[in-house]
Amino acid sequence: MNHLAHLYLSRTSEKLMVGNFIADAVKGKKFQEYETEISKGIVMHRAIDTFTDAHVLVSHSKSFFRARYGLYSPVIIDLVYDHFLAKNFGNYSNEPLNIFCDRCYKVFEKYFSVMPPRNQHLFPYMQKENWLLSYAQVEGIKKSLTAISRRIKNNPGIENATEELQLHYDELENDFEKYFPLLIKQVEPFVK
């Protein structure tokens, strides 16, 4: 799961959102240095990633990308699944996607000072280019994959993964629709 799914799964808790957003930049036990609810969001993010990485439906989705992109197929699936969440956001939330995205950006502005430098650097680009909303379009996914690909040594060309996305679109969307409700149920203890 990429940014949108982690933020959506945080429900209405601003601090869980912040924890979910910064989790990849917080290594080891450093999460304990944050206040309780942000720390809980970091742990929640890790639990989401663990559950996602091990799930058979996600593995099936990765299989469409594995031959061409190898170890980068999980990165691609994270964005592909965010695409399906963004595209079908109304199936999961009464809040329109654009309003949800604006709310997330306002939360990050509010908690900017507690974010690690990596997230402080990333956030202005995310907000300016409205990444969360752009995930609803295949072109937005391609743009995100292009940016990620540029940062990887020996550029693996993952920006071309939208070709496989479009070729296997219905099957990938079906995997997502079966998987995402299971993930929602899995993280319920974090949002109670």
Kindly describe this structure.
Helices cover 71% and strands 0% of the residues. The mean pLDDT is 95. 38% of the residues are buried. It contains twelve helices and no strands. The chain has helices at residues 3-9, 14-22, 36-54, 56-69, 73-87, 97-110, 117-128, 131-134, 138-151, 162-167, 169-186, 188-191. It has 192 residues and is mostly helical.
* Global structural class: mainly alpha
Characterize the main sheet.
Answer: none
| Order of helix and strand elements from N to C terminus | HHHHHHHHHHHH
Our count of domains comes out at: 1
Total helices: the number is 12
Q: What percent of residues are in strands?
A: under 5%
Radius of gyration: 16 Å
User: What's the pLDDT, averaged over the residues?
Assistant: 95
Could you tell me how far the N terminus lies from the C terminus, measured between alpha carbons in angstroms? 21 Å
Number of E strands: 0
The percent range for helix content is: over 70%
> What is the overall shape?
globular
